[in-house]
Design goal:
Structural class: alpha+beta
Distance between the termini: 89 Å
Order of helices and strands: HEEEEHEE
Helix content: 40-55%
Shape: rod-shaped
């Protein structure tokens, strides 16, 4: 007598479940890396914009004060209006990254960045390192990207 089989066996179902599990782990890892890169790109973009505003404010202030370096004013990041929270108030925190006040000279703008996440810190360091090789004049000094975050001093050279 022949047995009528219908449906799948338990082994086949476990095989399908294992394949779905492996694909899910890969997808979650890829999503996490993509989000870290997105956060890093957002921080680098904000730092670039702040560097441009700080340098142009520095040069304008210097011209208005006849070259007197003591009278030069550089706006704080929160006062530039680059980033605002839902209420519209300015902040200097982008995705857990604090963008500090710039140090501006005739040839460069130095901006300290403090991170709460190690992976975002490393992604920013990699991103700025890639920019350094592609665009002459931009340098980077990484203080640390430790487990709890880290700091980077990004220096944007002006031409």
């Amino acid at each position: 007598m022949k047995k009528n089989e219908s449906g799948r066996s338990m082994v086949e179902m476990l095989g399908v479940l294992a394949i779905i599990g492996v694909l899910s782990v890969g997808g979650i890892a890829g999503y996490t890396m993509a989000m870290n890169r997105y956060r890093a790109n957002e921080v680098v973009d904000m730092a670039n914009k702040y560097a441009v505003i700080a340098y142009s404010s520095y040069m304008t202030s210097k011209m208005m004060n006849n070259g007197d370096d003591d009278a030069v004013v550089v706006p704080e990041f929160k006062d530039t209006g680059l980033f605002a929270d839902a209420t519209g108030s300015s902040k200097n925190v982008v995705n857990g990254t604090t963008i500090g006040n710039a140090t501006v000279t005739e040839s460069s703008v130095s901006i300290p960045l403090s991170f709460t996440e190690k992976k975002v810190c490393e992604a920013v360091a990699t991103s700025l390192g890639a920019v350094e090789t592609a665009v002459a004049g931009e340098t980077l000094s990484v203080s640390s990207c430790a487990t709890g975050g880290g700091t980077i001093n990004a220096v944007f050279k002006q031409s």
